Amino acid sequence: MASVITTFLFIAFVSFTLVKVAFASDPDILTDYVLPPNTTTATDASYFTYTGVRSIVNTTYPSKFTVIKASLKEFPGLLGQSVSYAILQFPVGSLNPLHIHPRATELLFVIAGSLQVGFVDTTNTLFSQKLETGDMFVFPKGLVHYQYNANGTEPALAVSAFGSASAGTQSIANSVFNSTIYEGILAESFKTSADVIEKIESGLKS
Ligand SMILES: *[C@@H]1O[C@H](CO)[C@@H](O)[C@H](O)[C@H]1NC(C)=O
Ligand SMILES: *[C@@H]1O[C@H](CO)[C@@H](O)[C@H](O)[C@H]1NC(C)=O
Ligand SMILES: *[C@@H]1O[C@H](CO)[C@@H](O)[C@H](O)[C@H]1NC(C)=O
Ligand SMILES: *[C@@H]1O[C@H](CO)[C@@H](O)[C@H](O)[C@H]1NC(C)=O
């Protein structure tokens, strides 16, 4: 595990640099960095430091799929810098369900284990891939995608870099079936009955 962590830190540094060059898409700022609100004088290095991901070091693997984000919300120093991270932990057989990131491309790097991943483009073509440790995959901005650890014995660990300080995540299941959209609209949209919609909804609400 120690070597995994070292690899992770190295990779984190490299992907941060790459993403900033290749995928920056938030509005450009006109200053080197953006200070916290109500700050007029220079801040110190702690503003540019985030230690919230130390929680994955020296701890046992979570029992279900877990995301640790380092985005603008958790790490205010990212304001205006167009980058962020998510650390994805997949115990055996776990899924990061269908979702989109409305504001950023995602560059996923598999640090340990393997993952089945896929996205669907606007012509409804599926691009799916089996990724091994050391592989990367890019999920284009705003497209529906998933990641799944199909291996029955090995957990998987991945780091995703985003070309936005606040990529945003919209879960397909929750936004469609766990919001307050009128059932009739859902039934008509999916060409099915209200009963079927209720059944799907109840699975998410329980
Ligand atoms: C920031 O400035 C506003 C306006 O002066 C003030 O109302 C607010 O309390 C300040 N917030 C902090 C965290 O200092
Ligand atoms: C993890 O454990 C090692 C060995 O016990 C220790 O040196 C290191 O400081 C720990 N790291 C964290 C972040 O707790
Ligand atoms: C699960 O991962 C282990 C270790 O990498 C590998 O030996 C095994 O073949 C994998 N099993 C499947 C079903 O892919
Ligand atoms: C459905 O929405 C409720 C209320 O927002 C939330 O507590 C619950 O976790 C959601 N279900 C799932 C499966 O995320």
From TrEMBL:
A GO CC term attached to the entry: apoplast
Entries under Pfam families matching the protein: Cupin_1
Compartments where found: Secreted, Extracellular space, Apoplast
Gene3D superfamilies: Jelly Rolls (2.60.120.10)
Signal sequence annotation: 1-24
GO molecular function terms noted in the UniProt entry: manganese ion binding
Keyword Secreted included in the entry's annotation: yes
Residue positions binding Mn(2+): H99, H101, E106, H145
Database matches in CDD domains: cupin_OxOx
Chief location category: secreted
Role according to the record: May play a role in plant defense. Probably has no oxalate oxidase activity even if the active site is conserved.
Family the UniProt entry places it in: Belongs to the germin family.
Subunit note: Oligomer (believed to be a pentamer but probably hexamer).
Record protein name field: Germin-like protein
Organism: Helianthus annuus (Common sunflower)
